[in-house]
Structure formats: C-alpha cells, structure tokens
Amino acid sequence: MPLTGGTRKGSTRVPVPVSDRLDVSISLEPEDLVSMRRIMAQRLRGWGVSEESSDRMLLAVNELLTNVVEHVSPDAHGCRLADLLVQRVPDGVVAVVGDKDPRPIEPVAAAPLDESGRGLALVGALVDESEVSLTASGKDVRVFIADPAPATGS
Fold it and tell me: 65: buried, middle or exposed (CB in 10 Å: 19+, 13-18, 0-12)?
C-alpha cells in the first residue's frame, strides 16, 4: 500500500475518508496533542489494532509530535507545521511524522536528572522499526509497529 494520500482544500490538508489511512497536515501547538491522540485512538480502534499496539503507537507518535512542538522553529505566521500519516498495513501500523525543519535529528544522551533528551530513545523502545529521512522541505520520521490483529475497515 502506498504511504501517500490526502486531499487539499486550499493549502490545508484535511483528513481523508479512507478506511485504512489517516493523513493530515496540522499547525501544532501543545494543546493540539490531546486532540491528535484522540483522533488516532479512534482510528486505530476502528482498524482493529490491538490495545497494546495501539498504546505503543499513540505514545510514539505523541512523542514525535511533541518534538515538532519543542524543536521546530515557527514559520513567519508563528506556526509549527507537521504532516501526520498513520496507515494500517497488512502486518501492522505505520506512522510518518514530517516537519519543515531541515536540521537532521541529533540524539542527545540525557543525564539521569535531565527533564528532556529521552524522546527518541523512548520512540525506539516502543516501535519495531524506525527511520529518519531528510526531505526537500524538512524531514520525515517513519515508525512501524507489528500487529497481528486482522485489519477491519472503519
């Protein structure tokens, strides 16, 4: 299955009513993370993703979106833009979080009492596969979680 999709309404991407895919472009603020988790949780349930795989994916994607909020500089309009694609594939769930920051990800080693610096390690521990790709406009972080539950359309 291709990991693309979405329709554009002006310059804003809106959710696509496709049973096996959630594809959105959003301007992120910290308060938007709760809504994104809710939308994803509903979609994952509709696809028949197991609770354990769903929890892992929700936490991993939340961490990646939090990194956009915390590390991506706002554009001229004060927006931190991100693309989110979550797709049910035959053997699991794939998520891609894209941002408009051209800087590569530089993992840091967090000291025991540091309040940050553990996000990428957390994501790595939660998912079965991950990769970072630099794009013409920024970067994409792709994560995959295997899920043996059968796919059921929403």
Answer: buried
Q: How many domains does the chain have?
A: 1
The per-residue pLDDT string of the chain (154 residues; one tens digit each, 9 = 90 and over) reads: 333 344 333 444 444 444 689 999 999 888 889 999 999 999 999 999 999 999 999 999 999 999 999 889 888 887 899 999 999 999 999 999 999 998 888 877 777 777 777 788 889 999 999 999 999 989 999 999 999 756 455 5
Q: Containing domain of residue 78, as a range?
A: 7-146
Q: Has residue 16 been placed in a domain?
A: yes
* Residue 92 to residue 98: CA distance in whole angstroms: 20
- Is position 152 within any domain? no
Which residues lie below 8 Å from residue 137, measured CB to CB, with a gap of 6+? 98, 100, 102
Cut 0.90: pTM above it: no
Asked whether residue 153 is domain-assigned, the answer is no
Q: Flag whether 151 is in a domain.
A: no
36's CB contacts (< 8 A; 6+ apart) are 26, 61, 62, 65, 84
- Contact indicator for 5, 86 with CB cutoff of 8 Å: no
